[in-house]
Amino acid sequence: DSEALLAMPQLARLRGRRIALVGAPGGRNLIAPQLAARGARVEPLHVYARQAPRLSRRHFAALAAAPEPWLSLLSSGEALEHLCALLPAALAARWRAQPLIVASERLAAQARQRGFGQIVVAASAVGGDMLAAAAHWLADRPQARR
């Protein structure tokens, strides 16, 4: 995550260095100001746009028909906010009762504020760590596997 990246000793002293920051407009805007404060000249390269998903009745019907548990892996607070806003109330309530694997303590706090109760914090946002956390959750609950 951003905090782990900024804690790397290689990024402590950056005076006179040029850094290209590949990403999208929006987000937390934590990395660029920190790198600039450390003396770097940061050049953002926007290669994608952050957008809410376009969900249809077909998506909602598939989700409603999905067997539980719904084991969701989430690495973005913005994605959490989009889904909470877009899901119909009944589906959103059902989702909040399901296990949620998140990439950081910050996301866990955000999910708690949104009413999620079963939150597992993965070691990192790396796919393998997220999947390992999900596998661990399932291994601890044999009745949840179908």
Give the SSE layout.
Blueprint (H helix, E strand, L loop, with lengths): L1 H5 L11 E6 L7 H7 L3 E6 L10 H9 L6 E3 L2 H10 L2 H8 L3 E3 L2 H9 L5 E3 L5 H13 L7
Parallel strand pairs: 1-2, 3-4, 4-5
Brief account:
This protein has seven helices and five strands, in the order αβαβαβααβαβα. It is of the alpha/beta class and 146 residues long. The chain has two domains: 45 residues, no CATH class; 88 residues, 3-Layer(aba) Sandwich (Rossmann fold), CATH 3.40.50.
Characterize the structure shown.
It is a single chain. The chain is of the alpha/beta class and about 150 residues long. It folds into two domains: about 1-45, no CATH class; about 55-145, Rossmann fold (3-Layer(aba) Sandwich), CATH 3.40.50. It has helices at about 1-5, 30-35, 55-65, 75-85, 90-95, 105-115, 125-140; strands at about 20-25, 40-45, 70-75, 100, 120. Strands 3-4-5 form a three-stranded parallel β-sheet, with helices on both faces. A two-stranded parallel sheet has the order 1-2. The radius of gyration is 18 Å and the shape is globular. It starts with a helix and ends in a 7-residue tail after the last helix. The model has no long low-confidence stretch (mean pLDDT about 90).
The appropriate CATH architecture of the largest domain is 3-Layer(aba) Sandwich
Q: What number of domains?
A: 2
Would you give the CATH topology of the largest domain?
Rossmann fold
Whole-number radius of gyration? Answer: 18 Å
What is the β-strand count? 5
Approximately what portion of the residues adopt beta-strand conformation? 5-15%
User: What is the overall number of helices?
Assistant: 7
Strand order of the largest sheet: 3-4-5
Largest sheet: 3 strands, parallel
Structural class: alpha/beta
End-to-end CA span: 32 Å
Which geometry do the CA atoms define? globular
